[in-house]
Design a protein that fits this description.
The structure is a single chain. The protein is 46% helix and 15% strand. By secondary structure, it is of the alpha/beta class. It has one domain: Alpha-Beta Barrel (TIM Barrel), CATH 3.20.20. It has an eight-stranded parallel barrel with strand order 1-2-3-4-5-6-7-8, surrounded by seven helices. Helix 2 packs parallel to helix 3.
Length: 262
């Protein structure tokens, strides 16, 4: 089976630099994948990407060594299994709030006897290889999102679930849950303390910790803290930022008007 570079990077003590895909288009996904990201996450929870678009985006990412990851809409067995069958090498599940939630997530993403994932890796065989069924349980990476006050209360129980590989912090939702301003980078003190606590407990349980970031500078600081999976911005935000930079430069130049007024 094709190795999962996420696991290789983590085993070497490194951090994965992850990009985020919100645009439902295979060409934009392919363009992002060719920029050297360690992984790219297709977001099915928020935004406008549907399942069929996701499949074409996974195919586009497959033109590179970038690892395909998908954030599913919810803790629901059907979409988790179909996402893996389509060839995702990692899944991020939102709003995991209890030990039972984490147990379900692990079960839905693993074949028996370790889980209840139904067998039918149609495209995953093409991406992963003919021996995918024998190695999928040890290759696929399962992330539980920790982003609510309830999840914080149940953190130890969630982190101790066998088969869970990693956690992923959504700073905006976590901030909202704690009565703070929703943001990625400059967190209010209460939310920042919660992030540090989650990171410390995840490392104590031997799990990888990931987090969403709005800028490279913030991501680098969080790698220094001990995070080993950092998302930086998204395709939509990067496109907007690039266009804004171009237009700001053009407007600042105050181009002279021609005789015709243009």
């Amino acid at each position: 089976m094709r190795p999962n570079r996420l696991r290789e990077i983590w085993a070497a003590g490194g951090a994965v630099v992850n990009g985020w895909l919100a645009i439902p288009n295979s060409f934009s996904a392919e363009t992002m994948a060719h920029q050297g990201w360690d992984s790219l996450t297709i977001d099915l929870q928020h935004g406008v990407v549907d399942y069929q678009a996701m499949v074409t985006m996974l195919q586009a990412i497959s033109t590179t060594e970038t690892v395909p990851v998908v954030r599913v809409p919810w803790l629901e067995p059907g979409i988790l299994m179909k996402t893996l069958d389509a060839g995702a090498y990692g899944v991020i599940c939102p709003m995991v709030n209890t030990r039972e939630d984490a147990q379900k997530l692990v079960a839905y993403t693993h074949y028996a006897p370790r889980g209840t994932r139904s067998f039918g890796p149609v495209r995953a065989l093409l991406y992963g290889g003919a021996d995918y069924p024998q190695h999928a349980n040890d290759t696929i990476v399962t992330f539980a999102m920790i982003e609510t006050a309830q999840a914080l209360d149940n953190l130890e129980d969630i982190l101790s679930v066998p088969g869970l590989d990693a956690i992923y912090i959504g700073p905006s939702d976590l901030s909202l849950a704690l009565g703070c301003k929703p943001t990625f980078d400059d967190l209010d003190s209460k939310a920042a303390e919660a992030v540090e606590h989650i990171l410390a407990r995840a490392k104590a349980h031997g799990l990888v910790a990931g987090i969403h970031n709005g800028s490279p500078e913030a991501a680098l600081k969080r790698i220094a803290m001990g995070f080993q999976f950092v998302t930086v911005s998204s395709d939509a935000r990067l496109m907007a930022a690039g266009a804004q930079q171009v237009m700001a430069t053009m407007r600042a130049a105050q181009l002279p008007k021609t005789e015709g007024g243009y």
